[in-house]
Amino acid sequence: APVLLLLLALRFCCPGIHSQSLEIKVTSPRDITQLQVGQKLELECRIDKNRGVFWIHQDKSGTLHFILSVSSLSRVTFKGNQKPYRFEASKKGTFYYLVVKSFTPQDEGKYFCIMIDNQMLYFSPGQLAFLP
Questions:
Q1: Per-residue confidence in pLDDT tens, the chain, 132 aa
Q2: Nearest Cα to 75, choosing from 57, 58, 56, 54?
Q3: Structural domains of the chain in order of their starting residue, each with its CATH number
Q4: What is d(CA 33, CA 83) in angstroms, rounded to the nearest whole number?
Q5: SS3 2
Q6: Max Cα separation, the chain?
Q7: Spatial contact of 49 and 34, defined as CB atoms under 8 Å apart
Q8: How many CB atoms lie within 10 A of CB 124?
Q9: Measured between alpha carbons, how far is 50 from 116 in angstroms, rounded to an integer?
């Protein structure tokens, strides 16, 4: 985890590291601007390689939180190896999914998927998720 934190710090301090091969989109709800408390939020991250991804949440104060990782073999690893009841993850081909099962105010912020390939760190564009 310390290495991941260092890489994350480099991403936010150094403009030379850019997202290049990851796309993120909301698959549920249809209209992210109408997100409600208790609603399911499903994010999809598409990558062009079979490498696995990390899902990160940036809260409203700007603090980054590791949520989970999904390996190229579909193995999901949660923070502290303890599965939180709030999140689910899956993989289908080169599509990686993160589900916030019941959205709460603490889930507001920006979500990223991250891939490491050839010792390079690739970030998706951040996906904003806020209550109206």
A1: 555 665 555 555 554 444 455 788 888 888 888 899 999 999 999 988 888 999 999 999 999 999 999 999 999 998 877 777 889 999 999 899 999 999 999 999 999 999 988 888 888 989 999 998
A2: 54
A3: 21-129 (2.60.40.10)
A4: 28
A5: helix
A6: 40
A7: no
A8: 24
A9: 11
